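Task: encode each sequence below as structure tokens.

Item 1
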Amino acid sequence: MPSLLLPRDLLPEGLKALPQRPRAAHKGSFGHVFVLGGDAEMGGALSLAALAAYRSGAGLVTAIGHPAARTYLAAQLPEATWMDWPARLASRLPASAVLALGPGLGQGLAAHDLLREAAALPQRQLWDADALNILARFGPSLLQGRAERIFTPHPGEAARLLGSTAATIQADRPAAIAALCARYGGIWILKGEGTLVSDGGFLDRCPWGNPGMATGGSGDVLSGIITGLWAQGLMAVEAARLGVCIHARAGDLAAASLGEASLLARDIIAQIPRALRGEP
């Protein structure tokens, strides 16, 4: 896989900031994120993504999950609303919704059916975790709709999406993300050391982050951050770039306080406000 572009480091002055909130704003002014995931044994991933979306500024967040996962959300995030996995999504979602697909979704038959329907919807979509694993099984033909999409694989998921290996992905990460863009379209975020962002026409690299962020739930937090920013009116590319950097900076702030070995995904969420304010 030949590298097509050289990565350019993302810098604070090059990131699109969230606009100042008007005094007359209400919760509907800042978008509605729907997080689809939460299989019976994976409600924690759903809750982390939902909480991160709220902490990033989304006005409303709704979690859509298996009924058995509802207790996770009730315990961790009473501000969010809940929907059981429905027979159909189309009639339940406003046109302006932003969907985070995959946190704790699982790969059972119900997850496959839900993702097939979601893929055909026109609402803005972020694909992560098991949504990517299901996409790898079906290939680009699954992406029938014309929705704007952001995809956030780690190297293992990227390898499955390209029929490759994680070692090959890591050996030439710019080439790997270029191949993902070419095969599936959309905006891609290849997670890992020096997280990359690309749509095939540009290639950005995040210079922040630390090994302590290699912990369960960290990717779910990133999904929530990006969709929370996207829901507030940023363009998809702007939300991807800013979300990656906010996630990494929050991780660095958490590691500075707690140490890398002790860092948990919830600690990243706790530092989102400081990262959004640009605190050193």
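Item 2
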Amino acid sequence: MILVTGATGHVGRHIVSGLLAAGEKVRALSRTPGTHPWPPEVEVLPGDLKEPGTLVSALGGVESMYLFPVFGAVGGAVEAARQAGVRHVVMLSSQAVEYSAGEPHRECEEAVAGSGLSWTFVRTGALMVNDLHWAGQFARDGVVRGAYGRAAMAPIDERDIAAVVVSALLTPRSGTVHTVTGPQSLTQVDRVRIAGQALGLTARFEELPREHVRQQMTAHMPAAVVDELLDHRASLVGTTAEVLPTVEQVTGRAPYTYAEWLAYHEADFRPPGGR
């Protein structure tokens, strides 16, 4: 039995489908199990990573688990997993642990690595799915606004992340770190241009002052983390992002391009009635 936490998320739902396709028994953990259309083969149990006591039933008979990194809750979750006899944990993490001392994924990794369980970390950088928040701006006036629009990144499709996680769950190798990227070095300016062309919309990127963006981000993240993130993004302006072969090495297929991701999410970018 494999337990998937964060099973309704953009990555988690593809992990569930990937495990089912591989013929595995899958159990999904959800705080609100009755609000999602689960495949009939999936066993769904209620639970909250922030409340380890609610995990006991979900962890019974589980050999491996995918752990979504809920900040502040990972330590309790892995201790509950250890007590339940779980053997291997695959956790989603971030490349930011390599350059940011205060990045919260670092604490999550330390909790898992120190648990005594076998583990694999899947570290991501920029996620294509984060660009879904541009949909409202496309619909309003076609102008996407942000800071450091010419910072180069290699964003990755959530389906590729899930495929690497599924492989790590099916063939556990303790102490493995998979750092994953998409197949292209792209700036925000590039991605807005590609999206406009793919969706048939007039679109452009508008640079905003760093402080304006910082104020927006600190409403959701610690100021120190935001500053390190923006500093890192500033350092990427005028560079070419490193593209890693991890997805193809692990899964045996090429990762999805940004245009392919847009095609998959086309309906999410189009408001009711279209434009």
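Check on item 2: The mean pLDDT is 91. Strands lie at 2-4, 26-30, 43-46, 64-67, 88-94, 118-124, 143-146, 176-180, 204-207.
End of task.
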